[in-house]
Design goal:
Elements (H helix, E strand, L loop, with lengths): L9 E3 L6 E2 L13 E3 L4 E5 L16 E3 L4 E3 L3 H5 L5 E3 L4
Length: about 90
Amino acid sequence: MISMFTNLTYLALGSNRLRGTIPESLGTLAQLSFIDLTNNFLTGNIHSNLCKQGVAPSFMTDLLISSNQLNGSLGECQKEPRSRVVDLQDS
């Protein structure tokens, strides 16, 4: 469903009591530069396509996913030179 918003640049859904997993389709939104999903009840894996160059947003600057119950690593995000903030505290 979220993949329909192809021009979305800013997604702020922190502290909304969201449950479930981060949609893998979030990584296909090429214009998305800011994601805030902090302080929710998100579980599951962190999809590698969130920061994978050529697949994920081409100018992601902020990825805030702290205070959730997520698994996995952000290997691609840590390598991405354009990312300013990757906040994983308590995730």
